[in-house]
Amino acid sequence: MAKPIYAGSYNNRGGGRWKSVFVVIILIQIVLVGAYLIWSKGKKSDENSVAIPEPGIPEAVFEPGMPDLLPAPILEVQASPAIQSAISDARAALDAGQLADAKKQLDTIVETTPDPEAIKLLGEVNIKMLKSAIPMPGKERYAIQPGDYLQKIAKKYNTTVQLIKDMNGMQTDTIRAGAAVMVYNGDFSIRVSKSRNTLDLMAGDKLFKRYSVGTGKWGKTPAIEFKIVDKITEPPWTRFTDGKQIEYGDPENVLGTRWMKIVSDEHPEITGFGIHGTWERDSIGKQSSAGCIRMLNEDVEELFDLVPRKTTVIISD
């Protein structure tokens, strides 16, 4: 009797191998589908987390999926012993009320090295001197003429009414012909660095005070020259998504206590940008806005009182 051929056993072994391959393919497909679902969910979450644009800024500038806050690079540089000693002397002069001596020392330091402590101290000294009776570059005595009023004097000297009042300790706008007031006849301008997230108030070609600011996410604050064309106290905010006006004081209003609208003569098509306050203190020093320059409320209030309309604002990378 002939031996049977175990074809069935051979086929079963082959079928088993193909079954294993099929199972592996199914498992790979499940893994790929799961990975896609996780990726698409994360992408959707990123898109939903994008901040609401500020007024006038097109939605096209938003790039979903990129990180929200990009801090400026911080370079820690240890000041030399000589610089540290000079800063200590300047601080001692400030504490003693010798503002002119402190300013002289700090101007010299800042011109030779961008020491953060010296820069901060210089801004403090300059503000104190500006609002005191101590002479400094740009301050002048003006004899009030018949028919004068504060707005007229402020326009003549390209300054602000509030600064005149602060410099002279005035509580009201009332002035009298024949009296005299101190005015500031300096040339303020603003320089913003996107990489450092700083705003420098310049008096001529010298640094007057440096502020830490927030700039546009992903570098989308335009690096061009602007000028201030409007200034609003306690501004309302028009929400971009639906055009609804959010009044000052509403938690949804992102503009803080002050708004300074900036426009560009060379690029009039670029609109909706400004310098404004913020309630989000931890957003300062980072690329955190929808394109505007945001400041701490106390800082923007100070700047608002110092700079008049038509002040140049130069933004650089």
Summary keywords:
3 domains, 3-stranded mixed sheet, 7 helices, about 325 residues, alpha+beta, 8-stranded mixed sheet, Membrane-bound Lytic Murein Transglycosylase D, Chain A, L,D-transpeptidase catalytic domain-like, disordered N terminus
Structure description:
The chain is α+β, with helices and mostly antiparallel strands and 317 residues long. The chain folds into three domains: 76-136, no CATH class; 137-186, LysM domain (Membrane-bound Lytic Murein Transglycosylase D, Chain A, Roll), CATH 3.10.350.10; 188-316, L,D-transpeptidase catalytic domain-like, CATH 2.40.440.10. The protein contains seven helices and 15 strands. α2 runs antiparallel to α3, α2 runs parallel beside α4 and α3 (99-112) runs antiparallel to α4. Residues 1-14 and 40-76 have low confidence and may be disordered.
The CATH H-level superfamily of the largest domain is L,D-transpeptidase catalytic domain-like
What is the second-level CATH architecture of the largest domain? Beta Barrel
Please outline the major beta sheet: 8 strands, mixed
Strand numbers in spatial order across the main sheet = 6-5-4-15-8-11-12-14
